[in-house]
Amino acid sequence: MAIDVEKRRPRLHYVTGGLSGPAIKPIALRMVWEACQVVKIPVIGIGGIASTEDALEYLIAGARAIQVGTANFYHPNCSEQIALGLKQYCRTQGIEDIRELIGSLRT
After folding, report:
1. What is the pLDDT of residues 36-82, one digit of tens each?
2. DSSP3 helix / strand / coil % (the chain, rounded to 5)
3. Checking DSSP bridges between strand 9-10 and strand 44-46, what pairing results, if any?
4. Which residues span the domain enclosing 65?
5. pTM of the model
6. Which of 11, 49, 50, 55 has most Cβ atoms within 10 angstroms of its Cβ?
7. Do 61 and 104 contact (CB within 8 A), yes or no?
């Protein structure tokens, strides 16, 4: 929920909304990791992804793909920057195929 203090009205049309963006990332990342431990289907990482590091965390936790949502509103070209960052990370780490990262968490 958000309130416009000048107008004393809700900022959202339906008054309240869901939780998204950076606030949800720790929970979503945990759920991706847990889901990947028990299912054989591809899991997509969603929630709080706004940087290359965020995307890498989801891939390392086991996600086969990621989705960028909220960050697109305040940084419209962040998906392109994340893709370029992933390419650079793989290059500097000597990783030939990004799929090598999927589920590579060392516990």
Report:
1. 999 999 999 999 999 999 999 999 999 999 999 999 999 999 999 99
2. 50, 10, 40
3. unpaired
4. 19-101
5. 0.86
6. 49
7. no
Cβ burial, residue 57 (10 Å; 0-12/13-18/19+) = buried
Q: Burial level of 51, CB count in 10 A (0-12/13-18/19+)? A: middle
Cα 1 to Cα 67: distance, rounded to the nearest angstrom: 24
Within a domain: 64: yes
Do 32 and 62 form a contact (C-beta atoms < 8 A)? yes
Residue 66 domain-assigned (yes or no): yes
CATH number, domain with residue 81: 3.40.50.12600
Rg (CA), the chain: 17
